[in-house]
Write a structure and sequence with these properties.
15% of the residues lie in helices and 38% in strands. Strands 2-1-3-4-5 form a 5-stranded antiparallel beta sheet. β1 and β2 form a beta hairpin. It is mainly beta and 136 residues long.
Length: 136
């Protein structure tokens, strides 16, 4: 069984969530290129989900990083307004568990473990959408 660590990146605006390719993120963040023209002039959140992968299947969420950025009119990063990244540790969340855990969990919870504190910048609706994409 092959185990490794991987990550998925999501662009979040309000309750809307879009997967963001690693290439697009690298061009936006590291190369400072104008690749996010669709979000020009907006403030966006980028959630990076670090996960454990076994045999090419995503098995567990290890950590979630959130960053807030202002996108300039041309689609590039506005370095003067964007916030530094913040890592929020979370209890590892197994994605392949079938039986629900005992919990007084609300609708925003995932298998009885709250992720609210790990994604403080994004709405609970956006959190649920990210988890739905990861479950696929």
């Amino acid at each position: 069984m092959k185990k490794r660590i991987g990550y998925r990146i999501f662009l979040v605006v309000g309750d809307e969530v879009s997967p963001l390719t690693k290439t697009a993120f690298d061009e936006f963040y590291f190369r400072r290129q104008a690749v996010l023209q669709s979000w020009a002039g907006k403030t966006i959140d980028i959630a990076t989900v670090v996960c454990r992968i076994e045999n090419t299947k995503l098995r567990e969420i290890v950590r979630i990083y959130c960053q807030r950025f202002k996108v300039k009119g041309d689609g590039s990063i506005d370095e003067h307004v964007s916030q530094a990244p913040g890592a929020r540790p979370v209890e590892p969340v197994r994605l392949d568990e079938r039986k629900p855990r005992e919990s007084s969990a609300s609708d925003g919870d995932f298998q009885g473990r709250r992720l609210v504190h790990s994604l403080t910048m994004i709405s609970s609706a956006a959190q649920r959408k990210i988890l739905e994409v990861l479950r696929r």
